[in-house]
UniProtKB/TrEMBL annotation:
PANTHER family: COMPONENT OF ATP-DEPENDENT DSDNA EXONUCLEASE (PTHR30337), NUCLEASE SBCCD SUBUNIT D (PTHR30337:SF0). Residues 261-352 form the Nuclease SbcCD subunit D C-terminal domain. Residues 1-212 form the Calcineurin-like phosphoesterase domain. Heterodimer of SbcC and SbcD. SUPFAM superfamilies: Metallo-dependent phosphatases. Belongs to the SbcD family. It comes from the Bacteria. This is Nuclease SbcCD subunit D. The keyword Hydrolase applies. It holds the Pfam family SbcD_C. One of its GO terms (molecular function) is endonuclease activity. SbcCD cleaves DNA hairpin structures. These structures can inhibit DNA replication and are intermediates in certain DNA recombination reactions. The complex acts as a 3'->5' double strand exonuclease that can open hairpins. It also has a 5' single-strand endonuclease activity.
Amino acid sequence: MRFLHTADWHIGKKLHGYDLLEEQADAFQQILKIAKEEKVDAIVVAGDLYDRSVPSVEAIEVFNRMIVEMNLQEKFPVLAISGNHDSSTRLETGGPWFIQSDFHLNTRLDQAFEPVEMKNTQFFLLPYFEPISARLYFDNEEIRTIEQAMKEVITEMEKQFKPDMAHVLVSHFFVAGSEKSDSETKLMVGGLDTVPLSLLESFDYVALGHLHGKNALQAENARYSGSPLKFSLSEMSQKKGVWIVDTVVDKTTFEFKEITPLRDLIQLEGSFKELTTQEFYESIDRESYLHIQLTDRAVIPNMMNQLRQIYPRVIGVERLFGREVKEKNRAAKKEIKALAPTELVNQFFSEVTGEQLTQQQQTWIKDNLAALHQAERGK
């Protein structure tokens, strides 16, 4: 069968205070157009439908219109899961009757072991979950990490495999070997939410959500679709779109279809005088979201207001004066961002005390961070 793989819609997300609902609705229309042109049999949405666990009324209205048009009007079966940004409890409302229109929305771990079968393919819809969910489901107190949980989960799924069908996993996790961007807010506690790629080998295709770039993972049987829009400066050069996947038993092919943002995210560099020259600003798309790098050394009175008279969507202005110092600071910040919370605590403790954490202290820190993570998810 043929299906469209998308994810990380993040309906309701704002970009430096700017509302993106119009851009998200436009991106959806392009996705729907691709689905119709490619004559897909179903649409897969691999998590993070909303940007917040309690979305705004406006975000809910936009999402509802999308589902009505995609599923009820255009009659596309929809296979979706909740992501780490979604509230599984809230999304679950309506699930029993969604199925009547071929809208399959899984929000609980136990639902993942009942595959949705379409044509020659079994879809296992695995929503984002915490290790405690697997610990309770399998009644196994030894499950403490997602890696441990996924070993049990996949073993259970494999029991449902039909040999004459293709097997597709829809999931929302960080797979080892992937690269993330700044907009993917996640908490790694000692590798808590990392899934080894080797665990996914039994599936013909793994439709992933969570990371916002399509090239975050280059595996023969697994891909992130990436987000439909650019949500951070680190995503400026990324091509956004969806995967069209064709499943045949023992042979799956996929092709990326690009979409064009209603308003792009770009970066400009120059002096204040250059940027405010008519010849310059008429040569670019001023409706884009702009990050501006100023080369001026002098203070410019009322600078932001003047720039926004010309560029209505300035998301930030950076002074390039002292570039070498800033580059060093940026590199240091990048290194810090790459550290897991436990490593950050280790580094801070060592710098302050000149000593290393004991094994018992590391265990206390890891357990407390995991508890904080769970509490945050429960809000």
